[in-house]
Design a protein that fits this description.
Length: 137
Amino acid sequence: MVDLFGGYKDLKNKIIRAVGRAEDRFEEDALRLMRAARFSAQLGFTIDFVTQNAIKEKAKLLEFVSKERVRDEFTKLILTDRAHIGVEIMRELDLLAYVIPELLEGVRVEQNEHHIFSVYEHNLKSLEYSVLKGHSA
């Protein structure tokens, strides 16, 4: 097997890394920004630091991707077993602002004394529970 880009080593170490210059890959197709977050969540892989930085730098490119493609990629993410982790990865990578900015409004917004989580955390917990229940039905 010929592995010009070290992909086998990355697979073995559970790392997502862009081939070549990450910024170029994301400029070719900005949906790859979301795909990295989905694969990270779905497979339990970490995203390489350089690739993470490129994602944050190029996040704004999602504005130029058709809404249908963004919706389809986000749907794939929320249908994974680790959907809540994928949404959090998207937030950490500054992608959520271009997909569902309303979720960000709940970050660090506390609820009344009957709730121990912020609004955002409550939303993630609800998604996690929904996935769990959806798989046991």
